[in-house]
Write a structure and sequence with these properties.
It is built from four helices and two strands, in the order ααααββ. It has 121 residues and is mainly alpha-helical. It folds into two domains: 60 residues, no CATH class; 34 residues, no CATH class. Helix 1 runs antiparallel to helix 2 and helix 2 packs across helix 3.
Length: 121
């Protein structure tokens, strides 16, 4: 007989071990995919299915990528003092122009600020 019982037994044992090992790796990959989704959701990103497959297919490398990407929720908001430093007031043709750099009100028809010399809008 070409296939002995011992050969079939060894093949089956190796196959079972391979299936178990493959199943364990698949479960770990799925867990890493879900971890990537939760990380990117907390960072304010969408397209979570893509991040799941990033973790699923790339494994630990995908997890490292997710950890290294910038957090959208922790961006620095604009300072409330920006409006005082750089006021954005339009040119008023009836009362004159207010300089956007120093805030000085210039006479009607002025093209440059009398206070700082910058060009008026």
């Amino acid at each position: 007989m070409i296939l002995s019982f011992d050969f079939v037994e060894r093949l089956g044992g190796g196959l079972a071990k391979g299936l178990i090992a493959g199943s364990i790796l698949a479960v770990i990959a799925i867990i890493i995919g879900f971890v990537c989704v939760s990380i990117m959701k907390k960072k304010g990103y969408d397209m979570l299915v893509g991040w799941f497959f990033c973790g699923l297919c790339l494994g630990v490398i995908g997890l490292i990528i997710c950890l290294c990407i910038e957090d959208k929720t922790k961006q620095i908001p604009p300072s409330p003092y920006d409006s005082y430093v750089n006021p954005s007031m339009p040119y008023d043709h009836q009362t004159g122009a207010q300089c956007p750099h120093c805030g000085m009100t210039n006479p009607l028809g002025a093209h440059f600020c009398n206070g700082c010399g910058n060009k008026l809008n």
